[in-house]
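Supplementary Note 3. Input sequence used for the single-chain structure prediction.
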Amino acid sequence: MSATTGDRTNAATATVDLHARPAAPRTAALLTVDVEDWFHVNYRSFRPPAGPPALRRVEPNTDRLLELCARRGDRGTFFVLGCVAQDHPGLVRRIAAAGHEVACHGLAHELLYEQGEARFRSDVGDARARLQDLSGQSVLGFRAPSWSLTRRSLWALDALVELGFRYDASLFAVENYMYGLREAPPAPAFVRTLGGATLFEVPAPALRVGPLAIPHGGGFYLRMLPLWFERLAMRLHARRGEPSMLYVHPREVDEVEIAMPLGALESFIQSARVAAGRRKLLRLLTEHTWQPIADVYADEIAAPVV
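The predicted structure, written as discrete structure tokens, is reproduced below.
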């Protein structure tokens, strides 16, 4: 049984056994896609449009990713926002029809620790139900918007178990002002929640070098680090019996660049080396056979939740 909301008042200092039990060694390449639009960001300096944005790019960009996968027979895990599923139901159906895993990215791209537990349970439960109806799949996995499963929101692990999810893919080993948890496991592992349940975790890619964790595999890090480093990191993961992972956003294959009203630092994080990142991403997609999380870790995901 999970802790009650009242027991979580000191969540910022809560601890959880994030190294409960590692998964068996795997050397697969995991493709993950966060299906969201260009305006689904959580920067402090961003002011979202007052009404529904006139320009929507998530559908054509996700379709491009589907086409790239179809050319090589690759498959991946598509973490879809509930609001995207509501506005573009046909897109979810196409993702599922192409043989990809449909997973949940929340309802409206809100940071978990600002959303709060009660609304998180309601919103994510609704998003999961919608995705299951559209895809015809049992939605097993969850990834938090902007990796926002931190010490302040560890209660979300228990909520995910109680909502019927079998794995999480939200923990990021490097901390910054928005996300991260240094205790995140270095590779997929079973973690013990605050309430005492066990949940399978597939963390964001980070190469461990002594006490350091170097993030890579997507977003700002893929754009800024050289391609040779990404290839080296993937080889080292394989040597250690760990999977490689790419995490992709549909806007990253878009040749239409949309200027966002951001402060100087966050504008740099969002926009630096966008074209270079796109080229590296397209190269990496052709260099490996990519698979969904639910296929590679089917046994772990099917293990009883205790």
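The longest helix spans residues 117-135. The chain has twelve helices and twelve strands.
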